Amino acid sequence: MIGLIAALFVSIFFTLLNRYSHRLVAHNGRKHAREVLEKEIEVSEEQIKASQQHRELLSTLYTLGAVEGVRVRTRLVAHALNTNATMVLRTAREPQAAGLLYTSAVDAGNDEEKIFMALTAEGVHALSRATQATPQRA
Questions:
Q1: Which of 9, 10, 26, 98 sits 20 to 30 Å CA-CA off 52?
Q2: What is the mean pLDDT of residues 40-48?
Q3: Whole-prediction pTM value?
């Protein structure tokens, strides 16, 4: 009986840890993004334009805390955008080519959901500039 109760507590602990660990990562990533914004980094008009065109993806990465070194898997990005990993990677091609984000498939194998993504410092600055330049919808 004691073993069953201990197993239940361990199960609950790991469930909660799994559920809320991404929130801690997101908080740390957004904190890092604020630090990145304090640095002077040049962004081109092309990067700002690409950021405006792909604002949803870049904003999602920012919200998830995926900023320069703090990476998230495409599975989480796809879930946040209510799509699949293939579409996320397809959408990421242009901002990646513009230097706004990077992907890493170091341990993903053939599984697109396991590819890591994060904003670059230029991506954080371009998103910030694009957000300031775009009027808010009512």
A1: 26
A2: 89
A3: 0.76
